[in-house]
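Exercise 7b. Backbone tokens:
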């Protein structure tokens, strides 16, 4: 009987010892996952009201950018996490490090190049003008005519906003996304909306009585932005984009969303 008790005691001590070893090991590994070296999640900042580049299907964010980003993350051996925010917060989020990169049909321009670094461009964009069918605005020049007074809706913080505000001053109203700008157009608050061509097509398809003017407003290139000087990530992203262009992946993704 005594022997059995002694054996049980020994067993109990052994179990205790293993358990404490185990918890030690756990503490060490959880410390490791928080360090950069073992980071496996790649965070993308976007504004998911920009079909077909990024938009919601149910709870999920899908689109050209979402899929290209997932393909890039896969090449980097990382898991993609998409963080939806206001378009004009993306560059700040990238610089603060709350996301690793920004991808949002984002146009490369001089102003932004002062704040962030951009990857190789993966798509082109065109700023176009949406009007109501039968609008007195027939071409982009009508907006510049002497005494012109038409009101212009844009998405806050976009190139459309910057250029239009420069050209038309207080005739411009900023909305937090294209859907809201088009609602304002439908409601008569503004007479036209300046926005990128593919989202414009999606908005016109979803709203009766609107059309896109044939004359465009500006031509642009889209790219991914990273924090200034983050060459390590930028090089990896550029290499991934090159490979995804070369093997046709980007074309396939674009063709899936733009017919
Ligand atoms: N291309 C424009 C820009 O860079 C508009 C982009 C808006 N993107 C978005 N996901 N809402 O300013």
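Sequence design result:
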């Amino acid at each position: 009987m005594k022997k059995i008790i002694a054996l049980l005691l020994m067993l109990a001590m052994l179990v205790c010892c293993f358990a404490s070893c185990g918890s030690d090991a756990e503490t060490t590994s959880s410390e490791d996952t928080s360090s950069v070296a073992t980071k496996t999640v790649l965070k993308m900042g976007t504004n998911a009201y920009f079909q077909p580049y990024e938009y919601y299907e149910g709870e999920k964010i899908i689109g050209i950018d979402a899929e290209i980003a997932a393909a890039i993350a896969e090449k980097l051996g990382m898991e993609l996490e998409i963080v939806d925010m206001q378009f004009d917060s993306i560059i700040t989020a990238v610089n603060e490090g709350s996301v690793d990169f920004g991808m949002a049909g984002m146009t490369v321009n001089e102003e932004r190049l002062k704040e962030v670094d951009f990857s190789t461009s993966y798509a082109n964009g065109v700023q176009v003008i949406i009007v109501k069918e039968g609008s007195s605005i027939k071409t982009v020049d009508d907006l510049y005519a002497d005494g012109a007074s038409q009101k212009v809706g844009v998405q806050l913080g976009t190139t459309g906003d910057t250029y239009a505000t420069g050209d038309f001053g207080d005739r411009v109203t900023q909305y937090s996304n294209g859907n809201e700008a088009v609602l304002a157009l439908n409601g008569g608050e503004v007479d036209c909306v300046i926005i990128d061509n593919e989202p414009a097509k999606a908005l016109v398809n979803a709203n009766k009585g609107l059309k896109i003017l044939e004359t465009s407003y500006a031509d642009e290139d889209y790219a991914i932005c990273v924090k200034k000087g983050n060459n390590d990530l930028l090089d990896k992203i550029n290499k991934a984009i090159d490979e995804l262009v070369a093997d046709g992946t980007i074309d396939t993704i674009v063709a899936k969303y733009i017919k």
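Instructor comment: The chain has two domains: 41-122+223-257, 126-220. The longest helix spans residues 2-34.
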